[in-house]
Amino acid sequence: MPNVGMICQPLYGPLSKKVGMPQKFCLPPVAYPSRSFGLNSALRPRFVPPQDNPDMTHLSDFPITQKWPAQHPDRIQLYSLPTPNGVKVSIMLEETGLSYEPHLVSFETSDQLSPEFLSLSPNNKIPAILDPNGPEGEPLALFESGAILIYLAEKTGKLMPQDAAGRYETIQWLMFQMGGIGPMFGQVGFFHKFAGKEYEDKRPRDRYVAESKRLLGVLNQRLAGRTWLMGDTYTIADIATFPWVRNLIGFYEAGALVEINNFPNVTRALETFVARPAVAKGLGIPKRG
Ligand SMILES: N[C@@H](CCC(=O)N[C@@H](CS)C(=O)NCC(=O)O)C(=O)O
């Protein structure tokens, strides 16, 4: 590694004095590989082809399989419900053609709070997966839809650009959905359609509606002259985003409230999205009981 010296950052504010830290802290420089590090590089997790991995069916060590037994332990196990977060993963699985076995996690019977589900998804939220054939051929359990989408994209080499810059840009829009669109639209649902609609004080509802409109404006601008968030390339960022737009207008019945007609690029992309066969199929998986 070339000696470029230490990287020093000044520490600001009274905290640095209070905790007795030096006014500057220094780190050795990080050596980044000079070549590009897209999905094709050595940093990509190594996946073993299923036919070369006879040991991959040992799912019984995972307590979740006691409540939801695997009929096909060689397939990816999906624990979900067709909500906007849940369908991201069923749509992704349909789009990639991976074989999987869906299991319904019913909120009516509080399945998400069962010890078996919590053993895999400690935040008691769907979706979650268990892949018998994860990196290095070992089983991999995952929760958080964004993490699952990235994982499945890397596993298959699909729905994510192969070049490093395109990959990070896709992740950027994925995070925009995870941190903005999902949480804000969800609050609109609560205050407009569910328990929060009884609240006399409309300020919380109006705050989330205003923020959702702002986010729709950002999406609309990004989609101007682009078919998808990444241009001509359909990616996991679209799979994360459009189920939420569909839900806002459909299930939450908030289309008029957010003045969805002001965002024609968003509605046009939504129409293209729902017309995809894999999307139409994934939207209904797992089947509700
Ligand atoms: N950030 C999480 C959010 C998942 C989430 O909120 N899931 C909801 C359904 S859409 C859930 O499982 N709710 C059950 C509960 O809160 O008890 C993700 O994207 O996976």
Keywords:
alpha+beta; disordered N terminus; binds glutathione; two-stranded antiparallel sheet; 41% helix; 289 residues; globular; 6 strands; Glutaredoxin
Write up what this structure looks like.
There is one protein chain. The protein is α+β, with helices and mostly antiparallel strands and 289 residues long. It has three domains: 1-31, no CATH class; 50-156, Glutaredoxin (3-Layer(aba) Sandwich); 167-282, Glutathione S-transferase Yfyf (Class Pi), Chain A, domain 2 (Up-down Bundle). Helices cover 41% and strands 9% of the residues. The protein has helices at residues 14-18, 64-67, 86-96, 115-120, 145-156, 164-192, 203-222, 236-249, 264-274, 277-282, and strands at 7-10, 24-27, 76-80, 100-104, 128-131, 140-143. A four-stranded mixed β-sheet has the order 4-3-5-6, with helices on one face. Strands 1-2 form a two-stranded antiparallel sheet. Strand 3, helix 3 (86-96) and strand 4 form a beta-alpha-beta unit. The longest helix has 29 residues, at 164-192. The model is unreliable at 1-38 (pLDDT under 50). The site of glutathione has 13 residues, from helix 5. Residues 83-86, 107, 112, 124-127, 144-146 line the site of glutathione.
